[in-house]
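Recap from last week: sequence in, structure out.
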Amino acid sequence: MSAPTAPTTPVHVTDATYRAEVLESELPVVVDFWAPWCGPCRMVAPVLDELALVYAGRVKIVKVNTDENGQVAADYGIVSIPTMHFVKDGELVSSVVGARPKPALVQEIETALLSA
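Predicted structure tokens:
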């Protein structure tokens, strides 16, 4: 069986596709809860774009627009954005609230998602 593939750009996930794209993913997932009007979210977006390419095949990065997908945001108690969830095997491993620089996100991915 071949290894799961991951897109090289973040995947836009909706309330309807969250379960399949995140909880049932064979790869670890970084979930970015964001909104178009959020300045810090826009600052993090290019970093996540870059990390999607760097970690392609090992980690999937997805984006959930909280304005358009309120159910998932409500289910996880998202009250501040950006919030990033780190999900492995369908389980929330860790989360960070607020914009983080690339080195901090890399460390979170390595620690939460790629550790044995």
